[in-house]
């Protein structure tokens, strides 16, 4: 069919040189696909190199400590991916002797591997004729064929999967899948694509009908929850501070944080001060408390907006289980907290040099 010929020719001329495209190693392909979920290639690339250097094989990843994996993942977000990655590596290493399942259906049984990731691994590693369907594919096909089906509905995914399967050359599914994903990432972009230079500009139905910016259609809007986090940066007489592990299910599971006071709205000094003295630090003598206004931030996650304030508190006594400030960076933190730690470290060094 002319569609796949044009698409593949475009790909061969315009594709990016990405490390996971130069191999059929299922471990590397699986690693890259998990990392690139909800993540841009430019952001994910350094993490791919870091992981393949630190964990050259699935056995190395399986034998790593979870905190080591989370630390290396720090800043990539969606940390459940890292935890699932680690568990799947352990399963593949210990139960499958380090060999990834050899088919799409078997790959689907792995933790953290959905239809898209299984299709990507199966086609790129084993050249199995299964189409990949992600946001890029939705966009390309909906525009080219003028499909107005709601991509938020499960039935629509089946519709696009069937269409992609029909278009895909069965003798070379891997290159077709790579091509349509790359075309959506580089050419048929979400906003203001340059249709004048598109290889499909004479046959794209959406372009002819002036509907390019209307497709794909998605009805469901994600409800965003606002949460208000007050992090307490406690410093004792020896300069040690206090951190805790987030063990509850939810965001940042198994990452570290400072003691947290969550409030229903942005909190003022008096409210936080009273809460700290009555409950959190009732056994200690507070010398001073400071609102770090310059570090206040709104950290946006896909489904939550976190309004984060930092409060510096000095106490007279020694903390139980205190952590030296210089040791903080070895722990896996959410990136917003890690950035705060780095900023404080830089400020501290500046202050020392000015003395």
Task: Offer a few descriptive terms.
single chain, 355 residues, alpha+beta, Endonuclease III, domain 1, Nucleoside Triphosphate Pyrophosphohydrolase, 2 domains, five-stranded mixed beta sheet, two-stranded antiparallel ribbon, 14 helices, 9 strands, oxidized purine DNA binding, hydrolase, EC 3.2.2.31, metal ion binding, glycosidase
Quick structural summary:
This is Adenine DNA glycosylase. The chain is an alpha+beta fold and 355 residues long.
Structure overview:
A hairpin with a 3-residue loop joins strand 7 (297-300) and strand 8. The strands form 3 sheets. Strands 1, 5, 6, 7 and 8 form a 5-stranded mixed beta sheet that branches. Strands 2-9 form a two-stranded antiparallel ribbon. Strands 3-4 form a two-stranded antiparallel sheet. It has helices spanning 2-14, 26-35, 41-54, 58-63, 66-73, 80-95, 104-107, 115-126, 135-145, 154-167, 173-186, 205-208, 269-280, 335-354; strands spanning 225-235, 240-241, 244-245, 256-257, 260-263, 286-291, 297-300, 304-315, 323-324. The mean pLDDT is 92. It folds into 2 domains: 2-214, Orthogonal Bundle (Endonuclease III, domain 1); 225-354, Nucleoside Triphosphate Pyrophosphohydrolase. The protein has 355 residues and is an alpha+beta fold. It has 14 helices and 9 strands. 45% of the residues lie in helices and 13% in strands. It catalyses: Hydrolyzes free adenine bases from 7,8-dihydro-8-oxoguanine:adenine mismatched double-stranded DNA, leaving an apurinic site. Pfam families: HHH (PF00633), HhH-GPD (PF00730), NUDIX_4 (PF14815). InterPro entries: A/G_AdeGlyc_MutY (IPR005760), DNA_glycosylase (IPR011257), HhH-GPD_domain (IPR003265), HhH_base_excis_C (IPR023170), HhH_motif (IPR000445), MIG/MutY (IPR044298), MutY_C (IPR029119), NUDIX_hydrolase-like_dom_sf (IPR015797).
